[in-house]
């Protein structure tokens, strides 16, 4: 009975660790997606219009404004990842 209780306690401790690891993986994927988007946008001609999704609607914007938005989102994702790494 004591072994079962010890196993249950160990499983309870590993569950938060697993969730944290899953969050880190998702954040790394999000960071990579933003990096790819920025790289692709930087290869476009500055006068070209691009579409950015806001909610369920797409808005036509300049390449520069979308790169700025993507960079902000990248910085936020990196900050969340570093916060998770410190915890």
Number of domains: 1
Strand residue content: 5-15%
User: What's the shape?
Assistant: elongated
Please state how the strands of the largest beta sheet are arranged side by side.
1-2
- Given the helix and strand composition, which structural class is it? alpha+beta
Number of helices: 2
CATH level 1 class label: Mainly Alpha
InterPro entries: PFD_beta-like, Prefoldin
GO molecular function: unfolded protein binding
Pfam families: Prefoldin_2
Region (Disordered): 1-21
Provide an overview of this structure:
By secondary structure, the chain is α+β, with helices and mostly antiparallel strands. It has a single domain (21-86), classed as Orthogonal Bundle (Helix Hairpins), CATH 1.10.287. The chain has helices at residues 2-42, 63-86; strands spanning 49-54, 57-62. Strands 1-2 form a two-stranded antiparallel sheet. A hairpin with a 2-residue loop joins strand 1 (49-54) and strand 2 (57-62).
Features:
alpha+beta; Helix Hairpins; Prefoldin; PFD_beta-like; coiled coil
What is this entry, summarized?
By secondary structure, the chain is an alpha+beta fold. It is 75% helix and 14% strand.
Task: Summarize the helices and strands and which ones pair or pack.
Layout: H1 2-42, E1 49-54, E2 57-62, H2 63-86
Antiparallel strand pairs: 1-2
Helix pairs in contact: 1-2
